[in-house]
Each structure stands twice: as structure tokens, then as C-alpha cells.
From TrEMBL:
Pfam families (UniProt xref): RWD
InterPro entries: RNF25, RWD_dom, UBQ-conjugating_enzyme/RWD
RWD domain boundaries: 9-110
GO cellular component: nucleus
PROSITE patterns xrefs: RWD (PS50908)
Family matches, as SUPFAM superfamilies: UBC-like
Alphabetized SMART domains for the sequence: RWD (SM00591)
Alphabetical GO biological process terms: protein ubiquitination
The protein, known as: Putative E3 ubiquitin-protein ligase RNF25
Example of a GO MF term: ubiquitin protein ligase activity
Length: 110
């Protein structure tokens, strides 16, 4: 069984990678909102799309993948949102039983 401390370290890792774009709603089980934008060296004029993902885990995380949902978007149509969530959920299934929060966010960046 994964220790609560390990999950806490993973939440800290997401915060380290995404900084102010990561809002922790609950530390354990982790529930986060993460704003994802293309990596354009912070040139906001080149950032045409963005999405805020909700990542809500249950007490069985990482054995049970978190629920992923769209909180907010800019410039991302419904079809692309659906594809994005599906690809993140596929990655979550692939990484089942592993720590995956940063990896799931990275799927959205790419």
C-alpha cells in the first residue's frame, strides 16, 4: 500500500512543475486543478489554447486511477476536449498502480 507521505510528495512535485497553475483542493486523497498551457517560453501571445484539468483521486490512489475532468478551457472545442480527456484516461490506465499525477498533466501539455 502506498503511504500518504508518498502521495504528498507527488502533489508537491505537481506544484513544483506547474507553480501557480496548480491549485490543491485536497492533499489526500489528492484533488487538484491544474491549468495546462503550451510551453511557449511564457510568451502568452503564442498560447492560443489552455485547459484547467480537475484531477480527483480516491483513497485507493494510485491503485485506482484518478477521475479527470475539464474545469475550464480557452480555445479548445468539445471534440478536442473529449480526445484530451480520453488520452489522459488511457495514460492513467497504463500507469495504474504507479504515481501518475505529473505524467497525466504532461499528456495534456503534449
Amino acid at each position: 500500500m502506498v503511504e500518504e507521505e508518498e502521495v504528498g510528495l507527488e502533489v508537491e512535485a505537481v506544484q513544483a512543475v506547474y507553480g501557480d497553475d496548480c491549485r490543491v483542493i485536497l492533499d489526500y486523497p489528492p484533488h487538484l486543478n491544474v491549468r495546462i498551457r503550451p510551453r511557449t517560453a511564457d510568451n502568452s501571445s503564442q498560447q492560443f489554447v489552455e485547459v484547467t484539468l480537475g484531477i480527483k483521486s480516491c483513497a485507493q490512489y494510485p491503485g485506482e486511477p484518478p477521475h479527470i475532468y475539464v474545469v475550464d478551457t480557452k480555445g479548445l472545442g468539445e471534440n478536442r476536449q473529449t480526445c484530451l480527456i480520453a488520452s489522459i484516461q488511457n495514460k492513467a490506465q497504463e500507469l495504474s498502480s504507479c504515481m501518475m499525477l505529473v505524467a497525466l498533466c504532461e499528456v495534456a501539455v503534449n
